[in-house]
Fold each of these.
Amino acid sequence: MINQTPPDLHAGVKILHDPVRNKGTAYTEAERDALKLRGLLPPRVHTMAEQELRVLGNIRAKPTDLERYLYLIALQDRNENLFYRVIMNHLEEMMPIIYTPTVGKACQEFQHIYRKPRGFYVSLQDKGRVKEIMQNWPHKDARIIVVTDGERILGLGDLGADGMGIPIGKLALYTACAGIHPTQCMPVMLDVGTNNEKLLNDPLYNGLERRRVRGKEYDELFDEFVTAAKELFPGVLIQIEDFGNTNAFRLLDQYRGNTCLFDDDIQGTGAVAVAGIIAAMRITGGKLSEQKILFLGAGEAGIGIADVFVAALKEDGMSDREARHHCWFVDSKGLLVADRDNMAAHKKPYAHKHEAITEFADAVKTLEPTAILGLSGQPGTFTRNVVETMAKINQRPIIFALSNPTSQAECTAEQAYTWSDGRAIFASGSPFDPVKIGNQLFVPGQGNNAYIFPGVGLGVIVSRSRVVTDDMFLAAAHSLANQVTEADLERGRVYPALSLIRQVSALIAMDVAKIAYDNGYTDRAEPDDILADVHEHMYKPVYPHYA
Ligand code: NAD
């Protein structure tokens, strides 16, 4: 539980400007006397529910999602408990505003909409004194850091220091979806420059006016940051987010063994997609070991999914080599084959001996996969021909068009259902509306990473695990798949309703924590009831009483 330091009873107006303790018009009569707030607030005392109504009215009256985002961020800066109450009670409505797709727009506009600092900036200028400056962070019990270097923000590319919106948004989801206390969350922007000309030429850009550094200087800054974080906040979980391909795979490999660190773009995506495939087996009646997956896109997301899928097959007794042969990739150069030149290291384990194939549709015909997963960011690439071929090969083809945002999806939900005569098991990265074909209603599942990372993070910090392991992501995938109901499956949905996310996260956290206790990844004693222990750690957006 959080130990909040007692408020300074003579602080008066100060408490109204402290987002952690501010209650706005909800201070009771007694609190107004005790905290010397008389006259500083309008006389009527409101309940939190009434305040929530006011906020909702304001949000819904805004003309654009970016305006809604700005309103919500201002609320977060003013009154965190109320912000989280609104987000949690209206998660499906608010998630696309505080996170993708609106957060992407906000990052693109960051230098123009900037009002107030939030999060923590570590830049090249701080080299040599990173630990010293990190002591400026006001909360001393940081448990989760989400850090980006802004190189590959969502599907938007290099946004430099303007990428700060991503760690802020992601940590808001940690709190909303899994109840990590807001004061235990630290968003960090590692400013190593940007190669985005538009930003470099914009006088309002907030980041360093220089091109990205690579190599030794970059590595030294990253290492100094990780070392400082571990020293200042012992046991802190570090999530690396939206790093470019080379740095993401490399840093993950380098640090995961000795630091409590993971990459959501790789591992979280892996777990959420594999959960969808496991759940799909309950519809098809098939086994994981009978699946052959053809990926379109061999970046962080595609490789991350393949790695978790391979782990799932190995758990069932398959060899590593055989398991990898169940995963095939087509990227921008065509089918990934063993004799390709200049292949990135992360692709090599999935480059099989095969003749070269350029077109995805031809690869589908030749390889006859049971599932196609789109992670290419290229809309329209699951063509009618591709979907019809999948439906010819499979009674229930698995078709996941996972590229974000919705406009980039490899096909739409309607196309997948229509072109497969309603037989496709479809999921997407961004939400699609339900589709009606004849009398049948199909509800597409959304393979949102928010089903996974908050629960994994909660399990790790509650158990005080020293590491985040592949086993934990596989366990999270199974846990998520187990929470899909028969009613979900009947409508074709391979994920639970987003509204159940706190329950989903708690159960994932329980399974993740169990792995930490069973494997000695923690010095904390295993509690009698892990789920109850998890629930006890979960933040609830209620006001404390000050008098
Ligand atoms: P990335 O840049 O690391 O990889 C993109 C891959 O697509 C590369 O391998 C590239 O070669 C390939 N590609 C590009 N153009 C292609 C083409 N015309 N044909 C075939 N392949 C092509 O990006 P990433 O992090 O792997 O993300 C990829 C997509 O997945 C993004 O749209 C992202 O939004 C989405 N994504 C979805 C989820 C989710 O649904 N939960 C999670 C993470 C990422």
Note: The pocket of nicotinamide-adenine-dinucleotide is lined by residues 155, 245, 265, 269, 272, 296-302, 330-332, 375-378, 402-404, 408, 429, 447-449 (CB under 6 Å).
Amino acid sequence: MIVSTVELFKHAYGKYAVGAYNINNAEQTMGLFRGNLDSKAPFIVQISKGARSYTDKRMLEAMIRAANEIFPESIFAVHLDHGDEAACMDCIKSGFYSSVMIDASHESLDKNIEITRRVVDAAHAKGIAVEAELGQLGGVEEDIAVDEAAANLTNPDQAKEFVERSGCDSLACAIGTSHGAYKFTGKQGLRFDVIEAIQKRLPGFPLVMHGSSSVPQEEVAKINAAGGSMKGAKGVDATQFKRAAQLGVTKVNIDTDGRLVWCRVHREHFLQHPENFDLRPPGKIFMAEYAKFIAEKNNYLGSAGQLECVRPLFKK
Ligand code: G3H
Ligand code: 13P
Ligand code: ZN
């Protein structure tokens, strides 16, 4: 069942974080829904601008509709990840999305607020929620490259002003993470001091953590052993998700880890079966492995086991 992002956040706030997982193809979609049902978790399925143009946005939306029929017990929101204004407006018009993210974090504060406000007005008129971003993560987002050294953490005072003036429903904060597989060069990690300061100024307001993949070292080792070359890849410590959730982090975005599962499964499969040229055998393994990965991730987030607790909220 496709549900409201805001309602999912209300239930989760301060207790657990909802996993927001990116999809690009049918195998990811199947594994994602299976893994969330296996772990009895509500979740958010998200589509980036890049994913919308990989095959065709209608293909991804149709896969989500199909998964909703194949897994009728599932409860999830549909979200646009890292949209610009045009993509947000397109999704709002379509009526299919529970929420959109407007990412104008590379703009000045005033311009970011101005753009976000326009998206909020259009979205709220159709009952759709808006995630906005303040501060910049390190790493690469879509086509905007941000030097990791110059990563600009969210200013807690600005966060309060930003939320009040923009009217957004949740805020993506830069709290030490970055996108991709190379997040930290040393002992850096989540900036709980910054999260705490933001929550103090915005009590009860849902915060979003992007760049939350853990980049499991055993996954990286298997990829490298099967011919990959991922030196120095490092991610967020998943055991910290629950502490972040208690401080208001209500949505945790994970994409890279899923790509690592895909990469490991396919590299290992073709290394072990050099005679194979069929996409289905590794595809089958990937769907099962991805489902297992999602279920494990939901344990760290605390969303595992919450499915039947949220269901009564959405009874018609
Ligand atoms: O934050 C970015 C997400 O991982 C989506 O990545 O833009 O390559 O689809 P993408
Ligand atoms: P990762 O690259 O850490 O998976 O982050 C994904 C993300 O933030 C999607 O918006
Ligand atoms: Zn992101």
Note: The beta strands are 18-22, 43-48, 76-83, 99-102, 129-134, 139-141, 144-146, 170-173, 207-209, 249-254.
